[in-house]
Design a protein that fits this description.
The chain is an alpha/beta fold and about 260 residues long. It has one domain: Vaccinia Virus protein VP39 (Rossmann fold), CATH 3.40.50.150. The relative contact order is 0.16.
């Protein structure tokens, strides 16, 4: 995740914690006040701070200096420089572990799962991630096919992820999360209802899928999208999606309990 030292500048502007994602995490954690939660791959800490606002004590683990420098101070959040596979934390220090749209950046999910179980031997693990195999096909894959093709390599099947982290020892549950049309966290599919938002390069640069893709390829899709919006072709082909208030695009919570 140190790649964010290069692409993470200005990341916190568009990647704000979404209240519905926070509420889902809070419900799944189901912990008493002042429980210790480790946020792995915390980025700029928007979710770390939001979780702390729920009354928890949070250790935000993040390898990127650029991301940590953008973090806003919160009295209940302590920052830790480390990776998912090597966290400088004591054994069994946590009541819970969360990883929010970060596991696709881990070098080894197997090694990370060992660390999760080392620092949190008896608590809950909550993962928020994406599986393209579970997603309804929408217009984004038409304009940016290479991004969606690469997602099949970046994101393993959700059942495999759950089994790996639970180590076949613990019970896991998978909970779908349908995306509302007004997400404040601008990850890849946030603007499923508003294609014009993807014309903004600053928004695209806050999404690793765009930031790490060859910009020549991205620009082809952007130019097509801009033209199709101007001519009305996009609305003719895909406009029915605007009738929806939410959509299942393959985003999932995994809850692992002991």
């Amino acid at each position: 995740m140190t790649v964010y030292n290069e692409i993470g500048k200005g990341y916190s502007i568009h990647r704000q914690a979404d209240s519905r994602i926070v509420e889902s995490i809070y419900r799944l954690l189901d912990l008493p006040a002042n429980s210790r939660v480790i946020d792995v791959g915390a980025g700029t800490g928007n979710y770390s701070n939001a979780i702390a606002e729920k009354g928890y004590i949070v250790n935000a683990v993040e390898p990127s200096n650029e991301m940590r420098l953008q973090a806003k101070y919160h009295p209940k959040v302590t920052w830790v420089q480390g990776t998912a596979e090597d966290m400088p934390l004591e054994d069994d220090v946590a009541d819970a572990v969360v990883a929010i749209l970060s596991i696709h950046h881990f070098k080894s999910l197997e090694k990370a799962s060992l660390e999760f179980n080392r620092i949190c031997k008896n608590g809950t693990i909550v993962i928020f991630t994406f599986d393209p195999r579970e997603s309804a096909k929408i217009w984004l894959s038409d304009y940016f096919p290479s991004i969606f093709e690469s997602a099949y390599f970046a994101f393993e099947p959700i059942e495999k992820v759950a089994a790996t982290i639970s180590s076949d020892k613990y019970r896991y549950e998978i909970h779908p999360f349908s995306l509302p049309s007004d997400l404040s966290d601008k990850f890849m599919a946030f603007g499923w209802k508003y294609p014009e938002l993807y014309l903004d390069a600053t928004i695209r640069n806050s999404m690793s899928a765009f930031a790490l893709t060859d910009q020549t390829i991205t620009n082809v899709g952007i130019n097509r999208l801009k033209n199709d919006l101007e001519t009305g072709f996009w609305n003719e082909k895909y406009g029915s999606i605007k009738k929806l208030n939410e959509i299942d695009l393959g985003y999932r919570f995994i809850k692992i309990t002991r």
